[in-house]
Design goal:
- Strands 1-3-2-4 form a four-stranded antiparallel sheet.
- The longest helix has 17 residues, at 61-77.
- A hairpin with a 5-residue loop joins strand 2 (33-37) and strand 3.
- The chain is of the alpha+beta class and 255 residues long.
- The chain is globular and about 55 Å long.
- The protein has helices at residues 61-77, 139-155, 160-171, 180-196, 211-227, 234-241, 245-254, and strands spanning 8-16, 33-37, 43-54, 97-101.
- The chain has seven helices and four strands, in the order βββαβαααααα.
- The chain starts with 7 loop residues before the first strand and ends with a helix.
């Protein structure tokens, strides 16, 4: 469902290697569907996101961190496979699966899972430490970014290759490493920040964005999304540019 060549996460799935497909807690937001292997009863529980999340070079930290936290929580509560990468999912319409479709399901906002999130510190945090990384799924993206940026705050010399090396070395410590493309995108994002915005503090100097710069950013994001084979939505453009979705809507309505 999620194109591995794209940096947009539209569906969030939990891979369950057990037969308890009917144990979904009643108060949990309803998934779109649950495809089940007939003989083993192994299954995927799949939610559609109301606001797709961008990963890779243009990822915003807070949405990605929330996506990782929700993925960890759902995997824990449903006893899912922590090594599942959320890219290859069972096709719900394939004749080999028995699929449950939830008629009252709808695209969900990640904040609807707030009551299900795990306590802070439930998983070992590896950023800026010598502890071997334990996170899985999108938590790898978050921990990789944190580790590389913290390292760069202390050691930045302007050498991009050095940052890329740190990123790939850290990625190699995961039990299931991220694809090289995602590691490169993270390293590139950190290098660009260090080169263009770093002022001796992790917080960049805030720059007033004029309407013209916002229009240019919106059009660039729209073109980038189309180039990845996706149909751009205002939520996706907002996620890439950091411009509020209402502002994106207002600007596009006037172009």
């Amino acid at each position: 469902m999620n194109d591995p060549e794209s940096n947009v996460v539209r569906f969030l799935a939990v891979d369950c290697d057990h037969e308890n497909w009917d144990m979904l807690p009643g108060s949990m937001p309803k998934p779109r569907w649950t495809p089940i292997t007939r003989d083993s009863q192994r299954h995927h529980v799949i939610w559609e996101l109301a606001s797709p999340v961008i990963i890779g070079e243009n990822a915003r930290r807070k949405p990605l961190a929330l996506l990782a936290a929700v993925q960890m929580a759902l995997t824990y509560h449903l006893n899912g496979d922590v090594n599942f990468t959320n890219t290859l999912m069972k096709n719900p319409w394939h004749q080999e699966w028995s699929t449950i479709f939830y008629p009252d399901a709808r695209p969900v906002d990640l904040h609807e899972f707030d009551d299900w999130l795990l306590p802070r510190g439930f998983y070992t945090k590896a950023a800026n430490s010598n502890i071997k990384p334990s996170p899985h799924g999108y938590s790898r993206n978050v921990d990789l970014f944190d580790h590389v940026r913290h390292w760069s705050y202390q050691n930045w010399t302007g050498d991009w290759a050095e940052v890329y090396g740190i990123a790939h070395d850290f990625n190699g410590m995961f039990s299931v490493p991220l694809p090289s493309k995602e590691v490169d995108a993270t390293a590139k994002s950190v290098c660009r920040f260090m080169e263009e915005d770093y002022t001796g503090t992790p917080k960049p100097v805030l720059r007033q964005r004029t309407r013209d710069t916002k229009v240019a950013a919106i059009l660039d994001a729209e073109a980038s999304i189309r180039a990845s084979g996706q149909r751009p939505t205002n939520a996706m453009i907002a996620a890439i540019t950091g411009i509020p979705r209402r502002t994106v809507t207002n600007i596009l309505n006037t172009l």
